[in-house]
Amino acid sequence: MRQSSLVVVANRLPLDDSAAPDGACEWRRSPGGLAGALHAILQQTGATWVGWDGTVGEARPLPDLGSLRLRPMALDEDETRGYYEGFANGTLWPLYHDAVESPVFDRGWWETYKAVNRRFAEAAAEVAEPGATVWVQDYHLHLVPQLLRELRPDLLIGFFLHVPFPPPELFMQLPRRVELLRGMLGADLVGFQRPQAAHNVAQLAAKLLGAQGADDAIVLEDRVVRTGAFPVSIDVAEMRSLSARPYVINQARKLRHDLGSHKRVLLSVDRLDYTKGIEHRLTAYAELLRDGLVKVRDTVVVQVAVPSRERVETYRGLRDRIEREVGRINGEYGRVGEPAIHYLNQPFDRADLAALYQTADVMVVTPLRDGMNLVAKEFVAARRDDTGALVLSEFAGAAAELEDAFQVNPHDVDGLKETLLRALSADPADLAARMAGMRRYLTDHDIHAWARDYLTTLSFSSQSRTASIGS
Ligand code: ADP
Ligand code: G6P
To answer: Which residue among 119, 283, 330, 377 has the highest number of C-beta atoms inside a 10 angstrom radius?
Structure first.
């Protein structure tokens, strides 16, 4: 077994298999912010990524991605149900997103979650060379830092949570709150998207574990655990260069033509997830059509909603509701050859996404709660000519950084309608100034800066060991 000096452990590998029309398996980059972000920085590092390829049953061998080695983890049917669909996405995901859907507390899921976390920790221990840095990602693997520390005290261990960390009163609902907190605080550095998360964790560590310290350093028994905010970002250079490709420019022109050259295009791109606020957005748009404030002859919505976690009941129910609502809106307001909403429930490759971003007059990103939301950042990076408006939920982590967006509370449907109208009728000079500001910000805060910042802080949290990564 080859070992690496940098090991990333994440539930999801950056590749996803999907059946081609002839039934053969095809590998492609998985949708979702975590995989995209890390893939961009790890390709040239000689690191190893321990994770799951999304299929149930035996793990298939995977090719290296550049110099990045993939160490696939198998999940059998019970593990997929109890760990991935169950505790991770039926309990933690809704709880961490303000309980916009009710979290389910199923005692059976916990044992599976613990067992799978142990297997991930063992796999990481196997592929980490002596003194290596191991960077554990996200809510699926809360217990890995502590388990790994027990197995390999020589390692430098980081943990990064891509989703929001909830307020203490929500976290306190978790039957296994002490174990989860202790597991995560097994790391040397625990990183979050927003400073509030570190504050919440410090409060909980004091209350549940008797820890001391402050928002940036928690003293737990004989150890100091550093914490802090490291807002994740995108590969800005990749999105810019994609956007300049002749294929993308032509594709964007073609899309505009197909959608109706004179029309204003409102675009949304989400995983089909109840945290993304798709239903609130559809309600707002339907009301604007009803009130005659927008008309199908001069405005069109494109909603990309890539399938996600489809075996989880709440996701299936959401898909049904959305498809019914899109059908109703199109039935009521569409005209022959002119739907009110183009609904695309399919994955796109990066170039086609970049073309879509260039096609939009208004990008509508209105999650009810989101750790960051990389789609908002991708849209900004794709707008080479500083045109277009970004409508952005206050409840996305990205709102703290993209201050020039048209910010909105997506729960307030009237406010959402007003903001959409404001964005649709904004002065081009105002839009250009906003977009230029956001683009400048992203240039300095891309995914490479994020990784450097996190790993440098991690290396300082243990004086004797250093993590290195290509810049
Ligand atoms: P989340 O991580 O919750 O899915 P983000 O907005 O942070 O939300 O990240 C979503 C990522 O998935 C983005 O990088 C986006 O480009 C990608 N993505 C979204 N929709 C699609 C799609 N239909 N096809 C391929 N990738 C997609
Ligand atoms: C979010 C989570 C990631 C996850 C992604 C896609 O970004 O923070 O950990 O990988 O959604 O979800 P999935 O369940 O398909 O991995």
So the answer is: 377
Q: Decide whether any atom of ligand 1 lies within 6 Å of the 307 Cβ.
A: no
Helix (H, G, I), strand (E, B) or coil at 107: helix
Check: CB of residue 356 under 8 Å from CB of residue 248. Answer: no
CB within 8 A of 216, min separation 6: which ones? 198, 226, 227, 228
Q: Separation of 99 CA from ligand 2 center, angstroms? A: 17
CA-angle at 64, arms to 59 and 67, nearest 5° = 145
How far away, in angstroms, is 374 Cα from ligand 1 center? 7
Check if 162 is active-site: yes
Nearest residue (by CA) to ligand 1, atom 15, is 375
pTM of the model: 0.95
User: What is the CB neighbour count within 10 angstroms for residue 90?
Assistant: 24
CA–CA dist 235, 135 (Å, integer): 19
* One-letter amino acid for residue 230 of the chain: F
Reported as a single tens digit per residue, the pLDDT across 115-147 is: 999 999 999 999 999 999 999 999 999 999 999
Give, as one character, the DSSP assignment of residue 51: E
Ligand found nearest the CA of 353: 1
Write the single-letter amino acid at 68.
Answer: L
